[in-house]
Structures are given as C-alpha cells and as structure tokens.
Amino acid sequence: MTAPFGAPLVGNDWSAALVDPPAPRRVSVVVAHFDQQAQLERTLAALARQTHPTDLLEVVVADDGSPEPPRVPDGVRLVRQEDRGFRLAAVRNLGARASSGDILCFLDADTAPEPDYVARIAALPSALPDVVAVGRRRHAELDRADPAEPVEEAGPRLELPEPTWLADAYRASRDLLDADARSYRFAIGAVLACSRWLLDDVGGFDESFDAYGGEDWEWAHRAWLGGAGLAHVPGAVAWHDGPDWAGRDEAERRARKNAETLRLMGAVGAPGALGGSLLGQSADVVVRLERAASPAAGAVGVVELLRAMPDARVVVPEQVRRALPPDPRIVEAWHGPARVDLRLPAPLLVRGAGPQALADAVRAVGVGDLGGVRLGDAATAVASRAVARDRRWGRPTGWRTEDRSGEGLEPVPDEPDLEAYLGGWWPRT
C-alpha cells in the first residue's frame, strides 16, 4: 500500500507539521443527517463560507433514512440509506464511499463549522496522513439565532458550557500530543478528520453500533492500534446546536451512557476498558510463546505469564495447548486486535522483579516513539501500532527499540518437575 502524499508520523509527534502547513488537498466533508432540515441548512451555509479553496472542497450529505429526503443546494451531493433505526456508523461509511477527497472530514448536521474549520482540521492529515485530527466542538443555543447569522457570531453570543472533562483532557495531553492507548476517548466523531488512505487501511466505522454513541471511540481505538496518531486542533471550531450530552436529563443520560459503555467493553481491549477482570473480543496484550521443549515446560511458562498478566492471551504451540486444561486465554492462534505483542523464544519463570519488568515494558511500548522493548534475551514487547504503520508505509517509520534488563525472567528447564511446581516447593523464592 503506497502512501499517496505527505510523510510518515514519528511516534505521535505532529507538532512540526504546524510550522509549515502543506498545500491544501481535496477535502470531502461528510455530513451525517437525520430529519434535521433547519440545522442542516445552517451547517451547509457555514460550509459554503469556508476559506478552504472551493475547487478543493466537496460536500456530501449522508441521510440515515429521514421520513422526507433532506433538501440540499446545487453542488452538494445527497446519498441516503433506508431507515432501519439509528445507524450513524453506517451512514458515515456511506458518505465516505460516495466521496472523492484525499481528506475526509466528518460533521453532524447539527454541528456548524466556523469559516476556517476545514482548512485548519485538514492541515495535519494533509501533511501527515497517519494523523486523526479532532476539532473543537463548542455548544450554543443556535435555534435562537436567525438562520442567516454567521455561526462564528451566533455561537459566542448564545454559548453553552463546554464539557469540562474533555477540555481538561486536551489540556493535560497538550492537545493529544501526549496521547496514549486510552486517548481514543477524546476523539469526537462529529468533528473528526483523517486521510482516506488511513480510513481505507484501518476500515470504516463499525456498523454493528446501532444505538447512540461509541462508534467514534471504537474507530479511534482501532485506528490507534493501526498506527494512527491523534491530534486535537483547537482552532478548528464547530458549533453544536444544543448542550453537551452531560447537560441533558440525568436519568436518561446515565442509562444511555451506560449502554454505550457496555457496548464498548466488548469491542475495545485498551487498558482498563474491561475493569481488569473480564475478557472481551479484543486483547490488550498477546503473548506468543515460540517454542517449548516439553508440554510441562510450556505449562509452567503459561501459568507464570498468566499470574503476571491475568488478562493476556497466550498463543502456544499445539502440543502445549493440548496438554493444558481449557482456558479461553490460552489459544493456538490470535487474529484479533491487540495493543502489544509480547514475544517469548521459550517459557519463562517470572520471579522477583520479573512481573514489574513485563508490566513496565507492556505499558511503555506504543507511547511516544517507543515501538519495542527488549528484556535481555527473554522477551520482546512490540507495539502493534508500530508494526502497522511500518507496514502501511512499506519501510521503517522511526520507531525506537529500547534494551532493558531481563532481571527476574529465568528460563524454565526443558523438563521441569511439574508436580513440585504446582505443589509450591519448586522453585524456591
């Protein structure tokens, strides 16, 4: 897969791209809509006033089966899908497929952008096509404004509070420059932009999401695992008509938010997403045991690893898997997503400082430009996002590998005394 333009991101450092912005590229704005004609008209009017070159701007309205087709002006493309309930993920994918731009900018019909929104949010993915850019969604009572009033004037005049948790997260992470594996929670689908190249590689929004919320976080998490960078662009402002979700009815908000969170628990394997005790369809860490001299050696190594990392999946040779009792964490192969691959040439005793060494390595990789950690000859932790980005570019993209001590990680004998191990009298600690 050949990169169409731009340069590879190194780690998550997109800051240099802001110094010398690239030439504008063709941008497709996909506006998701359902039965919101007045709000749609305000958003389309705002898009007609963008500073991004007109000949490089395409607008596609993707309608999620409104009772009546929305009215759009000449030059705006309309695509529709039948009404089968709330299908925001599917309608965003529909709009993306119907568009032709190098950069995809997703908006909702009730979220009207300021005049320089497209130019600002498209700049980073135009220079660094691995970047997922998130704009600043502000809130206002726009239904009280004259439809002809520019949104950059009506918004500040009728402003409602911004979500504090989101502003705090952007501030603490330096606008996601310090993003990590849980920063997908700060990607808001109504103000999101990425390159078509990245979207094609990681796949579109998960269309199994058929209720409000969560589809943007699932996609952002999947994009992160696929080597994407995350960036918040505070100057790219779009105004949402109405309060933030947190400002709505408490009982309804909590019930719907809980439903969204439960849906994400099964789809996202990031640290903490499952409460530290449940297994989902995604894994945070996959351990790959390359060989074992005997089933007993493999059994000791698997027990040691799962004691140190209870929620990991362990891929083992077939002879080891057959010898062990059934456990959903022990598999012959793993083809699902995972944040870290921990590669072991042979089974290990994890003693003393060993558990901490493994935990520190697993926690560190994939953050900043650290793509891998070698723990002596015992184990290597590799970030899946580093592998994915190098694959996408067809060459190394600047990830570092760090050598650390493998203290506390000792080889298991080829034929250990398994009864003594399970009985607790070997090895002595």
Care to describe what's here?
The strands form 3 sheets. Strands 1, 2, 3, 4, 5, 6, 7, 8 and 9 form a 9-stranded mixed β-sheet that branches. The protein is α/β, with parallel strands linked by helices. The termini are far apart. It is 31% helix and 23% strand. The chain folds into 2 domains: 15-267, Spore Coat Polysaccharide Biosynthesis Protein SpsA, Chain A, CATH 3.90.550; 283-423, no CATH class. α10 links the parallel β11 and β12 (330-331).
**Unreliable residue runs:** none
Determine the fraction of residues in helical runs and give it as a percent range. Answer: 25-40%
The average pLDDT value, as a whole number, equals: 92
Q: Output the CATH class name of the largest domain.
A: Alpha Beta
Number of domains: 2
CATH architecture descriptor of the largest domain: Alpha-Beta Complex
Number of strands: 18
Basic shape: elongated
Name of the CATH homologous superfamily of the largest domain: Spore Coat Polysaccharide Biosynthesis Protein SpsA, Chain A
Could you say which structural class the secondary elements and strand pairing correspond to?
Answer: alpha/beta
CATH topology of the largest domain: Spore Coat Polysaccharide Biosynthesis Protein SpsA, Chain A
Q: Which range does the strand content fall in?
A: 15-25%
Number of helices: 13
Give the radius of gyration.
24 Å
Major pleated sheet:
9 strands, mixed
First-to-last CA distance: 51 Å
Short description:
By secondary structure, the chain is α/β, with parallel strands linked by helices.
